[in-house]
Amino acid sequence: MKRVPPNRRKFLKATAAATVCSIAAPNIVTASRTNSQIIIGEKEHQFEVLHQFPQLPSQYKWQTTHNVAVDAANNLYVIHEGRENQKEHPSIFVFDETGKFIRAFGQRFQGGGHGLEVRKEGNQEFLYVTGYQQVKEFAKLDLKGELVWVKRAPKESGVYHPDEAEKPAKVWGDDRFLPTNFAFLPDGGFYLADGYGSNYIHRFDKDAKWISSFGGKGKGEGKFNTAHGLWIDDRNPANPKVVVTDRAHNTLQIFDIDGKYEKTIPGFGLPANIDRQGDLLLVPELVARVSILDKDYKTIVQLGSDVERLSADTKKSIRGDEKQWQDGKFVHPHDACFDNKGNIYVAEWVQTGRVTKLKKVS
């Protein structure tokens, strides 16, 4: 019998609790139609909703979409979890900004594809990828999918079972390595969240050598329950912050650049990851919405919210039945990112896969 991860077994309980969460008077905007367009948002944050925006060629199938990223040419990269028994099926797909398919790769992540970020280093861009389930690794690739390096659990941290680095297996627990997402540091290094395993945030140098860790499992204020996503908030370059989505606690936690806890921002519904453009932070929430935050971490608009309907769905029928999905509404946003023109891509944690483009109209 396939083991369902504990944090996902508790999903419905958490969604019910998250229904009552709200950040100081955000603007929760319902969809409207203009000449058959579906428009959500308000003022300078209005978007046309284009569900199922990129389409795969017939030889491929979506298998639970997880994360999205955009390169300098405005191409879209999508990773799905994939199926462990389909090793030859790619887990990463690339599309141009019109949604046209370009290429596919990443078979090594099948059955565990998760995190995905594009990073420019010098004159070249690279993909950083995490794999969980039985994959249990993080890797750096070029944009064509060629492997630069691959790493497993950092034994130096002293928090993992002895088998995690040499003999990764589909085993979950607080002493296991199930990495989720990255955040990139100004010095060329990066942070890596072990959101489904130890709940530690690991710091690595530019050569992917482990330096230090902070966090671990706990009840908040520097400890986490599913430290799923993170980002370096450098909107104040003199005082950058590490922002971590403490998903099962429905909060963001703020740290200084060295991992010292500073404060907690409550009021989310299973926040999954973070992206930034200009003064705005973008937070996809598994409980059926995408939030945009200002420089003070206050929510200024929530997009595609379907929180009440999803939270009342005790049989999970909405998530598994596309006929119940509503235009302009989200089901389970797992990741979201801005593109170079201010549009937003949203990947949802649904088995049939769904990537939505929110095309900026204001």
Please outline what is shown here:
The protein has 362 residues and is mainly β. The chain contains 5 helices and 26 strands.
Describe this structure in words.
The strands form six sheets. This protein has a six-stranded antiparallel β-sheet, with no helix packed on it. Strands 4-5-6-7 form a four-stranded antiparallel β-sheet, with no helix packed on it. The protein contains five helices and 26 strands. It has helices spanning 6-9, 11-18, 163-166, 307-311, 317-320, and strands at residues 32-34, 37-42, 45-50, 65-70, 76-80, 92-95, 101-105, 113-121, 124-131, 137-142, 147-151, 181-184, 190-193, 200-204, 210-215, 227-233, 241-246, 251-256, 261-265, 275-277, 280-285, 289-293, 299-303, 333-338, 344-348, 354-360. The chain is mainly β. It has one domain: TolB, C-terminal domain (Neuraminidase, 6 Propeller).
Write the layout of secondary structure elements.
Blueprint: H1 6-9, H2 11-18, E1 32-34, E2 37-42, E3 45-50, E4 65-70, E5 76-80, E6 92-95, E7 101-105, E8 113-121, E9 124-131, E10 137-142, E11 147-151, H3 163-166, E12 181-184, E13 190-193, E14 200-204, E15 210-215, E16 227-233, E17 241-246, E18 251-256, E19 261-265, E20 275-277, E21 280-285, E22 289-293, E23 299-303, H4 307-311, H5 317-320, E24 333-338, E25 344-348, E26 354-360
Antiparallel strand pairs: 1-2, 2-3, 3-26, 4-5, 5-6, 6-7, 8-9, 9-10, 10-11, 12-13, 13-14, 14-15, 16-17, 17-18, 18-19, 20-21, 21-22, 22-23, 24-25, 25-26
